[in-house]
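note to self — DONT lose this again. spent like an hour looking for the file last time. sequence + predicted structure for the chain T wanted, 325 res
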Amino acid sequence: MTSPTEPVLTSYRRAAIIGGGVIGVSWAGLFLARGIDVVISDPRADIEDLVRTGLAEITPALAELGLPTENLTDGLSFEADLATAVAQADVVQENGPERLELKQEIWRTIEDAAPAHALLATSTSGIPASAIATALREPERLVVGHPFNPPHLVPLVEIVPGEKTSAETVERARAFYAALGKKPQVLRKEVPGFVANRLQSALFRECVHLVAEGVVTEAELDEIVTSSIGLRWAVAGPFRTFHLGGGPGGLPHFIEHLGRAMEDSMWPALGNPTFDEATVTTLVEQADDAFGRGTVEELAAERDRAQITLMRALGETPGSGCAHA
C-alpha cells in the first residue's frame, strides 16, 4: 500500500541531526523508521555507543506505534565534522545546547555547508529563531521545529517562524513534520518558551506550590491530574472543555457565570513558589518515595506504553498511515 506521506518524504532522503542527546536520538529513531537516512554529528567521543543504546531503548515504542523497525539502523551514520555532516542533507534538525552564541556558531557553519534546498530547523525549546538568525546571511531559511519530548512518540511539533522566516520555509516545515506523522502547529508570533512549555510551566508552578504548602503530596497531585484534567485534556483542550462546561450557552455562558469568580478568587490565590533549599528538599524526598520503585528507563517505558495505548484509542498513532513491507 502506498503511504500518503511518501510524496513529501521522497524529497527528504537524508537528514543531518546535530546533537545526539535524548532529543536527537528520538528524532533519529523517527526519521529512520520513516525511511530517511540519518547522519548524526556530535563531538562526544562515545556518541555512537550512546545513540545506538538509545535507539535500542526506543525501538519497542516505535514498533508499538506501527512503524517499521527491522534493520532500523541500516541508514544510520556518524560524522563529527559539522560541515561534512550537513553537506548532503535534505533536512537539518539541530538539537544543540540552549546557548544562543553556540547555536549561532553552529548555524553559521550549517548555512555555509548545507545544500541550498535543505530544510533548516532547530529544536530549541525557547530561543527565538529571530535571535539565532541574526548571525545568518539567509535568515529566511531558518525555522523552529520544537518537539514535545520525546519526538518519536508525542505528536506535537511547534513550528515557530522568526521575523524573517519565509512563508515557503514555514509551509515546507509543516508539510515535512505532518508527513512524519506529527501534529505540527504554526505559532502566529514568537513568545519565550513557545506555547506547550509555557502551559506546562504554569501548571507545574502551581503543582510545586501545592506540594510545598502541604496541600497534597507529589503522588497525590499526579493522581489528581491523570484522573481528571489530564484525562479530559487528552480529548478536549481547555477552551473546548470550558465551552462544553457552559452548557447550551457555551464559552460565553461559562465566562459570564464562572469567569469572574475565577479571576477574582482563584487567580490571585495561585502560588509563586521558588526553588529554595526547603522546597527542593521536599520535592526530591517525595519523588524518591513516589517514583523510587524502578529505574528512570523502566518508568519511561511504562509511561510510553500507556501513552501509546491512549493514542491508539484516539486514532493518533503515526504508523496508521505508513506503508509496511
